[in-house]
Design a protein that fits this description.
Helix content: under 10%
Distance between the termini: 32 Å
GO molecular function, one term: hydrolase activity, acting on glycosyl bonds
CATH superfamily of one domain: YVTN repeat-like/Quinoprotein amine dehydrogenase
Keywords: Carbohydrate metabolism, Glycosidase, Hydrolase, Polysaccharide degradation, Signal
Bound molecules: 2-acetamido-2-deoxy-beta-D-glucopyranose
CATH class of one domain: Mainly Beta
Organism: Apiotrichum porosum
InterPro entries: WD40/YVTN_repeat-like_dom_sf (IPR015943), Xyloglucanase_GH74 (IPR052025)
Radius of gyration: 28 Å
CATH topology of one domain: Methylamine Dehydrogenase, Chain H
GO biological process, one term: xyloglucan metabolic process
Largest sheet: 5 strands, antiparallel
Number of helices: 4
Number of strands: 56
């Protein structure tokens, strides 16, 4: 299918080097949201100050840079590469291992989905993650699967530091003796992992060579070996049934536990004492009950140290209610001299972090201490949602129940007392990182002061990016979980779109000639309450997003009896008066094409000439009432505001397998491009009547990763950007063309791949700028700062 023009072949022969080391100067910047996803674990090196790593479920691993006060991504080299499979799946970190004997060494277990994608890998570094060796893993991993909140599955044997163990989800316990290069199955390990969560926490005893502990996420799942894994025993006396206290809560709530006994979530060892957090489900959600126990490995005695058990919580207003389901327990970190911190798991409104100074006999509830008087649950005040330099993270208010507060946390798996600063505690949530430098205030029943510490961490899943030619912001985004943003300032976190709030903004568009008119469509979880005001899943603004109004009605496929799984795609006519909405109806239940409205959404009309929904939908940016659709390998154009379509597009590949999204020129009516995934980019200047393949075939990896931006010279061609493979044998990457595809320059390099974007847009106002959004690594932009005048002067 890949027809490579002769021209490109000759160019390739003499410029292979130029592709690898791009002659462009490029700066990479995040579009700052800061956080946005689940931080699943922290690890601090015991001997080197400030050497701290954070793992995330879908955005890779970060290393803390204390001097710059920012988290630095260290896995951005991960490819997209859907062809070989070695790609995006490797951007989820299942576990991190540090070598306590050598702070330079770092190991990552990478793999996002254990079932969907067989690609998993171990990354091994000798320079704290500046560079890695990559080894394919013999077992699958699931950094975004259930149980990702657990302890570390990957560990270095401190007595033989070239040896690592890995507790897998489905294939038992594995050992490498060559620093993660090759692995063998420790088949002597008992089969205790039949539930797909597997061996959730593995630790070596630093004081006893040959002793290691493994927590399988099943009742009674705590195992020990004293002979380096030759033989194993279930630890005697471990809790295998729920405590009397838990049973008394169960009878108070009337809701049964989900497992017959406590299931290990995280196992940790401090001064010859094991601490184990337990829950009745792996988490991070769906948990009802849990306990915390300790085990003195010298005296072989167990203790129930659950912070919420009766009498254990010594904060001024003890919790320990017996009428609400309390949730489970998750994170563990240690300080000096008996200091232990644990976190709750899925305690919903009252998720919290508990501090003990006596090895777990008594506890202070840090969430309770932080909670303003009169606020329910455990919470921070909204004014606290600031970074250390007082920069506000305004979107965190999305969790505000309307009282100026937000939950103390949810999905608190990652907790860390800085080993070099006993007053510093970090905890991660499903959305951000909180930190304090005044932990010991809790000893006097005062709240430590908290701030946001997610600088540099970008974790959103971004479906749509649009850059209007004028208006208050160069960028609007639509994303999962956070809904999306108008990015007035790319360096500072912005407020989310205000009402309506979507759990996912799936489609977003502006009007080419009046860009302050925008529409957005997406999944609104508040269907019942919001649909009183109109269509809960579609909204429109005329002031660039300061205020949004719901469309008065929904198209028929979006309705209270059958809300589709996805808001689909929306296109706004150039004059801002016509909207075309293609909601998710991929099974074509209704048998209609994209709905059109020219009365602001009061009525939606079923078109003729196009009889199915498509994400390949766009408006002409200059001429009103002109809409383009590329659907199931056919091209359609409407010149009457989406009421009737005719099939045109001669020169485009046809066949239902092809997908692509039309992108219309900001400058010229009737000019557009369609990047046909896996085939090439096609250009039309006659409203889509005819297309020509751009001379150097270029092929994007997904329909939505092609975009256009400001031309190099005022009268010149708009700059084309795409993520893909411009010609066979050229590497996958981000490419741009300033001569309408006659030649392509690679913008990114091998260190800046981000697992590949799923959304992309040029900037019509700034030459050489391209925004791209990842499924888990937020939004980045690349700014090209110099472009060689022509090939012959290019310096390599
Ligand atoms: C993935 O592919 C890249 C590029 O070919 C290679 O450098 C890397 O080692 C591969 N990783 C794995 C785990 O196979
Ligand atoms: C730990 O035990 C292993 C296996 O017996 C041995 O090879 C290693 O040298 C020991 N390490 C130390 C620090 O004693
Ligand atoms: C590894 O060993 C375990 C026994 O501990 C066994 O159940 C599992 O099937 C083995 N997996 C592979 C891939 O060898
Ligand atoms: C350590 O803790 C013990 C008991 O919890 C206490 O008696 C002792 O004073 C503490 N030591 C320091 C240095 O804080
Ligand atoms: C609601 O949408 C479904 C398809 O998603 C459709 O079958 C049904 O007819 C619609 N109901 C109404 C009342 O329009």
């Amino acid at each position: 299918m890949f027809r490579l023009p002769v021209l490109a072949l000759t160019a390739l022969a003499c410029s292979l080097g130029a592709i690898a080391s791009s002659s462009l100067s490029v700066e990479y910047h995040p579009v700052t949201i800061s956080g946005g996803g689940f931080i699943t674990g922290f690890l601090a090196h015991p001997t080197q100050k400030d050497l701290i790593y954070a793992r995330t479920d879908i955005g890779g691993t970060y290393r803390w840079n204390a001097k710059a006060w920012t988290w630095e991504p260290i896995t951005d080299f991960v490819l997209n590469n859907p062809l070989s499979g070695n790609g995006t799946n490797l951007l989820g970190t299942e576990s991190i291992a540090l070598d306590p004997t050598d702070p330079k060494r770092l190991y990552l277990a990478q793999g996002m989905y254990a079932v969907w994608d067989p690609w998993a890998a171990f990354f091994a570094s000798d320079d704290q993650g500046k560079t890695f060796k990559q080894y394919r893993s013999p077992v699958p991993m699931g950094a975004n699967d259930m149980g990702r909140n657990g302890g570390e599955r990957l560990v270095v044997n401190p007595h033989s530091p070239n040896e690592l163990w890995f507790g897998s989800r489905t294939e038992g316990l594995w050992r490498s003796v060559d620093r993660a290069a090759t692995w063998s199955n420790i088949t002597s390990f008992p089969d205790a992992y039949g539930n797909g969560i597997g061996l959730i926490s593995v630790i070596f005893d630093p004081n006893n060579n040959g002793t290691a502990y493994v927590g399988a996420c099943v009742p009674g799942g705590l195992y020990v070996t004293h002979d380096g894994g030759v033989s194993w025993a279930q630890i005697d006396g471990q809790p295998t049934t729920w405590s009397d206290w838990t049973n008394s809560i169960v009878s108070g709530t009337g809701t049964a536990t989900q497992s017959t006994g406590p299931q290990p979530i995280k196992v940790a060892l401090n001064n010859n004492k094991l601490y184990i957090t337990y829950a009745d489900a792996p988490g991070p959600w769906g948990v009802l009950y849990g306990e915390v126990h300790s085990y003195d490995v010298s005296s072989k005695t167990w203790a129930d140290i659950t912070p919420s058990r009766k009498g254990a919580n010594t904060t001024p207003a003890p919790s320990g209610s017996t009428t609400t389901v309390p949730g489970g327990w998750n994170g563990i970190t240690f300080g000096n001299n008996g200091t232990v911190v644990v976190s709750t798991l899925d305690a919903n409104a009252a998720d919290s972090v508990y501090l003990s100074r006596d090895g777990g006999n008594s506890w202070k509830d840090l969430g309770q201490l932080a909670t303003p008087t009169g606020a329910g649950g455990t919470s921070h005040t909204l004014w606290q949602t600031r970074m250390r330099d007082r920069t506000l993270v305004p979107w965190l208010s999305f969790a505000d129940p309307g009282k100026g507060i937000l939950g103390f946390g949810w999905w608190i798996a990652a907790v860390l007392i800085d080993p070099f600063n006993q007053d510093r505690l970090l905890y991660g949530t499903g959305a951000t990182i909180w930190a304090t430098d005044t932990l010991s205030r809790a000893d006097a029943d005062q709240s430590p002061s908290w701030y946001i510490n997610s600088e540099g961490m970008e974790e959103a899943a971004v479906w749509v990016l649009k850059s209007p030619p004028s208006g208050p912001a160069n960028l609007f985004s639509g994303m999962y979980d956070l809904g999306g943003f108008r990015h007035d300032d790319l360096t500072v976190p912005q407020p989310m779109y205000n009402w309506p709030t979507y759990s996912s903004t799936d489609g977003l568009d502006f009007a080419g000639k009046v860009p302050n008119v925008l529409a957005r469509v997406g999944r609104n979880d508040n269907w019942a309450t919001d649909s009183v005001y109109g269509c809960a899943w579609g909204a429109v603004t005329t002031d660039a997003g300061d205020h949004w109004n719901l469309f008065p009605t929904c198209p028929p496929v979006v309705n209270s009896t059958a809300v589709p799984g996805n808001g689909g795609t929306v296109a706004v006519g150039a004059d801002g008066k016509t909207f075309v909405w293609s909601p998710y109806d991929y099974n074509n239940v209704l048998g209609t094409g994209p709905y059109a409205s020219s009365d602001g959404g009061k009525t939606w009309t079923v078109p003729t000439g196009l009889t199915f929904q498509t994400t390949g939908l766009a408006a002409d940016r200059v001429k009103a009432n002109v809409f383009y659709a590329y659907a199931q390998g056919n091209f359609y154009v409407s010149v009457d505001g989406g009421l009737t379509y005719s099939q045109t597009g001669s020169g485009l590949p046809t066949g239902w397998t092809w997908s692509g999204t039309p992108i219309a020129s900001y400058l010229r009516a009737g000019e557009l491009w369609v990047s046909v995934t896996g085939v090439g980019i096609y250009h039309s200047t006659d409203f889509g009547a005819t297309f020509t393949a751009l001379p150097n075939s270029a092929s994007s990896l997904q329909p939505s990763v092609f975009g256009i931006g400001a031309p190099k010279t005022a009268s010149g061609a708009e700059t084309l950007f795409f993520w893909g493979i411009p010609a066979a044998s050229k590497p996958e990457g981000l490419y741009m063309s300033t001569d309408n595809g006659a030649s392509w320059l690679r913008v990114n390099d091998d260190q800046h791949q981000y697992g590949g974007p799923v959304s992309l847009s040029g900037d019509p106002r700034v030459f050489g700028r391209v925004y791209f959004g990842m499924n888990g690594r937020g939004i980045m932009y690349a700014q090209v700062t110099n472009v060689p005048k022509n090939k012959h002067r290019r310096r390599h």
